[in-house]
Automatic annotation (TrEMBL):
Organism: Deinococcus koreensis
GO CC, alphabetical: plasma membrane
Sequence segments annotated as region (Disordered): 263-282
Pfam family, any one: ABC_tran
Single GO term (MF): ATP hydrolysis activity
Name of this chain's protein: High-affinity branched-chain amino acid ABC transporter ATP-binding protein LivG
Coiled-coil blocks: none
Domain ABC transporter: residue ranges: 8-255
InterPro entries for the chain: AAA+_ATPase, ABC_AA/LPS_Transport, ABC_transporter-like_ATP-bd, BCA_ABC_TP_C, P-loop_NTPase
UniProt feature, compositional bias: Low complexity: 263-273
One GO-annotated biological process of the protein: L-isoleucine import across plasma membrane
Keywords, in A-Z order: ATP-binding, Nucleotide-binding, Transport
Length: 282
């Protein structure tokens, strides 16, 4: 990988479900060391985009390159091994198990072909266990939960449980972390704490891409925003650029009646002074 090679580079990416183009012809770059937000009205294809990048879905068109390597056809655990990990909209946390055990499960599921595969490889159990424990402990330190490693996960607050979910993804020590609606269900104070955590992780060298409806988080955190609408990229730029891009505003206004959420004042609030250039259209 040269200096100029982007961390993640998707070209003409698409997937069709029956007659529906859930993601269509998306070309975008996710740079290293930054926070990239993927936004768009409900059903725009954001989660599907994440599912494509993380190997959960196989694209029907296009390529995905990570650090210069073609990862388009890799399976999930192979993608993880290259350095991409993700959280889910609703992370399953085992409430009765300790925080550490949860993070260890995250490590195993992500570094093996699957949980059952991990469980059945009993011969390698001890080495695996030590590796998972070390990876999980490091991840817990990064999310500020090392001191609570031995508490049952269910004893943590909602915010603490979110941190466990992030630690589960971090336990494989990814270079790129994909966060799917990390602030869902969080109150404003928790959202602010989460934003601080994401910033810290990026300062520590991680690159982050996130899907999020909460515009306060997106506008306050993202270095760049990629906007999807009906599966297609309609804009990419800084928060200031994107929030006053006519195509973006109209996509959100058009979808507002159907549950679009940019109507929470984000478009106006992010760049009241009108500074910054125009968003780059797809
Ligand atoms: N596995 C699937 N099979 C069929 N259709 C799917 C599948 N996954 C997603 N879709 C469809 O693809 C479109 C994009 O869905 P997706 O969940 O990616 O949107 P989104 O932007 O994440 O929406 P939201 O903000 O509501 O989570 C939707 O019309 C959805 O119904």
């Amino acid at each position: 990988m040269t200096e100029a090679t982007p961390l993640l580079d998707v070209q003409g990416l698409g997937i069709r479900f029956g007659g529906l183009d859930a993601v269509k012809d998306v070309t975008a770059v996710i740079p290293a060391g930054q926070i990239t937000a993927i936004i768009g009205p409900n059903g725009a294809g954001k989660s599907t985009f994440f599912n494509l990048i993380s190997g959960f879905y196989q694209p029907t068109a296009g390529t995905i390159r990570f650090q210069g390597e073609d990862i388009t056809r890799l399976r999930t655990h192979e993608v993880v091994a290259r350095g991409i990990a993700r959280t889910f909209q609703t992370t399953t946390i085992y409430r009765e198990l300790s925080v550490l055990d949860n993070a260890m499960i995250g490590h195993r599921v992500r570094t093996r072909a699957g949980l059952w595969d991990a469980l059945l490889r009993t011969g390698r159990e001890r080495k695996d266990e030590a590796e998972s424990r070390a990876g999980a402990m490091q991840a817990l330190e990064r999310v500020g939960l090392a001191g609570r490693a031995h508490l049952p996960a269910g004893a943590l607050t909602q915010e603490g449980q979110k941190r466990v979910g992030i630690a589960m993804a971090l336990s494989s020590d990814p270079k790129l972390l994909l966060l799917d609606e990390p602030a869902a269900g969080m109150n404003p104070e928790e959202t602010v704490n989460l934003m601080a955590l994401i910033r810290e992780l990026v300062t520590g060298g991680l690159s982050v891409a996130l899907v999020e409806h909460k515009m306060s988080l997106v506008m306050g955190l993202a270095d760049q925003i990629l906007v999807l609408h009906h599966g297609q990229k309609i804009a990419q730029g800084t928060p200031a650029q994107v929030s006053r891009d006519p195509a973006v505003v109209s996509a959100y206004l058009g979808s507002h009646a159907h549950g679009g959420q940019m109507g929470h004042g984000a478009a106006a609030g992010a760049d009241a002074q009108g500074t910054g250039g125009e968003a780059g259209h797809a």
